Structures are given as structure tokens and as C-alpha cells.
Amino acid sequence: xxxxxxxxxxxxxxxSINANFAKRLIIFPDAATWTPSPQKxxxxxxxxxxxxxxVRTTYFARFAPxxxxxRRVHDGGEEIFVMEGGFEDESGFHGEGAYLRDPDGSTxxxxxxxxxxxxxxxxxxLPGDEERVAIETACGEWRKAPEGFAIQPLHHFAGVTTxxxxxxxxxxxxxxxxxxxxxxxxxxxxxxxxxGNYARRSWxxxxxxxxxxxxxxxxxxxxxxxxxxxxxxxxxxxxAG
Length: 241
Hints:
Elements (H helix, E strand, L loop, with lengths): L24 E3 L7 E2 L5 E9 L5 E8 L3 E2 L3 E2 L4 E12 L2 E4 L2 E5 L4 E2 L2 E2 L3 E7 L10 E4 L6 E3 L3 E9 L2 E8 L3 E6 L5 E8 L1 E3 L2 E3 L4 E4 L4 E6 L3 E7 L2 H8 L5
Antiparallel strand pairs: 1-21, 2-3, 3-4, 4-12, 5-11, 6-10, 7-8, 7-9, 7-12, 9-13, 14-15, 15-16, 16-23, 17-22, 18-21, 18-23, 19-20
């Protein structure tokens, strides 16, 4: 039985990746080096990884057509957004745009006949967050705003909120980034702010608490999670002893 990809260290191993949550971070997967997994046809790109008693990690996973993984246990829960392609497990087929949350202790055996690209967060479920969620966002309801953007809610628990944002071509979104931090993945199109330009598949982690003017000349869609980075940063700090 596998806990997850072999990229995740055993308990109490001192490995960490991008564990300074007070620092703004941008990763462009198309320009990064991916790591092959022990399972043929599966590779990953670690974005952040930390933890001792329980490991938390965020990563992109890429399956070649026909690739699969052995049965996996979700220690601390697993959150998945299917960015491209699709995969199948015991609960059915999950195509592009599927948003999945499997709570602590659940298991599955993913396989992808067509290949897929996944955004995955493992180990971030808060105590008491035990609901399984499966949303086909392609059929989801968008809440439109007159400023040229729309939001599709995905999940909310204990101050942590996950949603999609869609900007119309030429739209400008002026807002305050959540004071407890935010991360975003550009799912389609591109956008920019004072901090840089973000092409499709870009991952942005921001400690928050400051204004942002987000512009999308051609339109874009983003996966966004807010309110969780401050707690993650506390968990990532080494303890004295």
C-alpha cells in the first residue's frame, strides 16, 4: 500500500522544499525539471514539501497514456484538480476540470488511459474536514460580477476557501490578497500583475495582505485557494529541541 508518490519523505525525515511561506514564489512547470516516479509513465514536479510527524506537499503529477499508480492512502487528505486529460479510480472517471477532495484515511488506485496533468495537495486537510467532494467544474455555476470576472466556489472550511476565477478578455481585477495567504494555478489563458506575467500552468504562492491589480488581456481562468498559508507556515517551522 503506497502513501503517495515516492517523492514524499518518510516521517521525521528533514527534507523540505519551498517551506518559507512568508516569501512570494512563482514556478513555471513548462520550464522546470520533472522527476520520474518509480511507476512507469508517471512523473511529478514538487512545488512545496515539509513536515515531520505528517508530511504536507503540493505538486503537479503527469501521467502518460496507460500509466497507473498502486493503491494510495491519503494521509491528511488529498485534493486534486484535473488540469488536462483524465484518470479513473474506484469512484469513476474524472476528466478535465474535475475537482476532488478525499479525506484522511481514504484510498484509491488511479490509472489514466489517455494521460493527464493533475494539481495535487496532500496532507492539508484541517481537523474535522471529513467530507468527500467531487465537482465537475465544466458544469458548475459561475457567479458573475460586473467588473468582467466570475467565480465558481469549490470548497470552504474553517476559513480556507477554494474557488475558480474566470477573467474576461481585457478585464482588470483589483482586490486585496487574503491576509492569511493565497496560492493560484493558471488553468487557461494568461494574466499579469506588478509581480510578473503568468502563463498557463503557472503556480503562484503569495503570503498575502497586500493589494493586487490582476490583468488578463486575452482572458484566463485560475484555481485559487486562500486562508491557509499562515497555518501552513507555522506547521513548516522547525521546533526547538
